[in-house]
Design a protein that fits this description.
Layout: H1 20-41, H2 44-52, H3 58-61, H4 68-83, H5 88-115, H6 120-148, E1 156-161, E2 167-172, H7 177-190, H8 195-205
Antiparallel strand pairs: 1-2
Helix pairs in contact: 2-4, 5-6
Length: about 230
């Protein structure tokens, strides 16, 4: 007889077969999703549109709900135009910001004038804000001017002669006849001494030769007899 209280041995659980194809498909799907996220995060136009979505004023939402896709399309088209050389958007952006900063300056200056008689500390704060807006407006207009009229680049000409005494000529690039004359003068100073010039230089180096009298070195004459008193 078998004991009723005796438990029967547990049967081993059945192991379900692993579908390797399904697991591989899941990994590929996750990889594609992460790839899309990485692509969007490294796309400047999309990140700019994503940031702008957080700063849409309520007054603008009255024209319709904000959509990240349409926002990204606008940012992408504007960025593409600038990359291709169309500077219309940056110029319009700068002049618009300058005008907005000018409005801030006028508003703060007007409020400061209204409070300067009774509330001097408040007026001082408003005047500081007005001057800051004015400085930013000036800087924005300066950048716009440099964007419209880029500064000319000056090319510097440098000549180094290492043979013999070193000579360095630094100066702006010359054009036309001035450059030609300068090159001829430089060639004349570097040419070898001729026989005639050698003779002249040899004469100047002869210490025994009689030198020409001058104002500071007059011709010396023979000293006459010295009239001295007798011993």
């Amino acid at each position: 007889m078998t004991n009723k209280n005796q438990k029967e041995p547990a049967q081993p659980e059945a192991i379900e077969p692993v579908d390797e194809a399904a697991e591989l498909a899941k990994k590929e799907a996750k990889h594609e999703i992460s790839k899309i996220t990485a692509t969007l995060m490294t796309r400047p136009s999309f990140m700019a549109a994503h940031t702008a979505m957080s700063f849409i004023p309520d007054s603008m939402k009255a024209y319709g709900p904000a959509n990240i896709l349409t926002m990204h399309e606008e940012y992408r088209d504007r960025c593409k135009a600038v990359v291709e050389g169309d500077m219309t958007t940056p110029e319009a952006l700068l002049i618009s910001q300058a005008m907005s900063l000018n409005s801030i300056y006028n508003e703060c200056a007007s409020l400061a004038g209204m409070n300067i008689a009774e509330r001097l500390p408040k007026a001082e704060v408003l005047l500081r804000m007005a001057l800051k807006a004015q400085a930013q407006c000036t800087q924005t207009l300066r950048v716009l001017g440099e964007l419209k009229n880029p500064k000319a680049v000056a090319f510097i000409k440098q000549q180094n002669n290492a043979a013999g005494p070193q000579q360095v000529n630094n100066g702006p690039v010359t054009q036309g006849t001035h450059a030609h004359v300068s090159e001829e003068t430089q060639a004349a100073t570097n040419e070898l001494l001729t026989d005639e010039r050698e003779a002249q230089d040899a004469a100047t180096l002869d210490t025994g030769a009689t030198s020409r009298a001058g104002h500071q070195d007059p011709q010396l004459e023979t000293v006459g007899a010295i009239d001295r008193p007798g011993d």
